Amino acid sequence: LLPKEVTIIEVGPRDGLQNEKNFVPTEVKEQFIHNLSDAGIQEMEITSFVSPKWVPQMQDAATIVSSNFNIRRKLVLTPNRKGVDRALELGCDAVAVFVGVSNSFNKKNINKTTMESMEELKPIIAELKKKNIFVRACISTAFYCPFEGKVSEEATIKLCQEFVTAGVDELSVADTIGMAVPTESFALFSKLKENLQATLLTAHFHDTRKMALANIFAALQAGIDRFDTSAGGLGGCPFAPGATGNVATEDVVYMLERIGIQTGIELDKLVNAIDVIAPMIARPIESGYYQLAKKS
Ligand code: HMG
Ligand code: MG
């Protein structure tokens, strides 16, 4: 049985832009976020507090979070104490932390082993919950790692469980390098759904091998009703070799609405949001929906 409604968590302003070499002016990012919220998006990662040496594109995070946006939560991504403190000082009410199941990936991404990251994050999560901050944990390399290959379901479920014990509100479980296939999506999300009933479960698919829509449909069948997507299909982690864009928000919204699942998002306004960011991106926007919208 498929859900009647789905929540889209837009990650374009964060995952979408972090891998772009050319700096996108802050005002353009802000306009992009405004247009996305005008299209009906309520949940969004608006930026990340990470080292500007590692990810120069996100160096304007403080300015971005200081603007007012019409969204449910001011959600930012960050891996450490420094970023969390900065986010709270600037009035964020939601934080997304991130850890890879695979050690080699976590080392490349955050310069720590998975266990070191967890030791750092557990007390931070407890403090955030005391302050009533919404906490989301992004689980990278939940299916495959660019360095270690296949990641076991057991390892992913174990890390998810650790985060739930630590008190997070949401888990965003990611196919970082877009290598999962629908049988794997269905199997993992069915098990997570069964074992972690009290936590919001979200699926985060990259579309590297064009499997993302199929994987989303499989996750829907496993009972998942929250998906991370990126307008224009932008995105990818700079520290995961070969990783390309997130699944395009417009393609996901088109599929869901055609199936009869409500998203609350208006496609024509989503196209307006992509129009703002497209000229800043070094490659053409490849999503089927956007290309067709531009031809007609
Ligand atoms: P490091 O070099 O080991 O640590 O980096 P450090 O503590 O020596 O920090 C280096 C510099 O960064 C210092 O500045 C710090 O102050 C500063 P300096 O003293 O040299 O001038 N710094 C910070 N600045 C701003 N905000 C912060 C912060 N922390 C330190 N929060 C570190 C360790 C974690 C900082 C680095 O590895 C890093 O920034 N990594 C982030 C990598 C990243 O952003 N990856 C992409 C996001 S994750 C992703 O895309 C996956 C996801 O989409 C799911 C999926 O698809 O899998 C979520
Ligand atoms: Mg990602």
UniProtKB/TrEMBL annotation:
Occurrences of domain Pyruvate carboxyltransferase (ranges): 6-271
Keywords: Lyase, Metal-binding
PROSITE patterns xrefs: PYR_CT (PS50991)
Superkingdom assignment: Bacteria
Keyword Metal-binding applies: yes
A molecular function (GO) term: metal ion binding
GO biological process assignments: ketone body biosynthetic process; L-leucine catabolic process
Family label: Belongs to the HMG-CoA lyase family.
Protein name, as recorded: Hydroxymethylglutaryl-CoA lyase
Organism: Heyndrickxia oleronia
Lineage: Bacteria, Bacillati, Bacillota, Bacilli, Bacillales
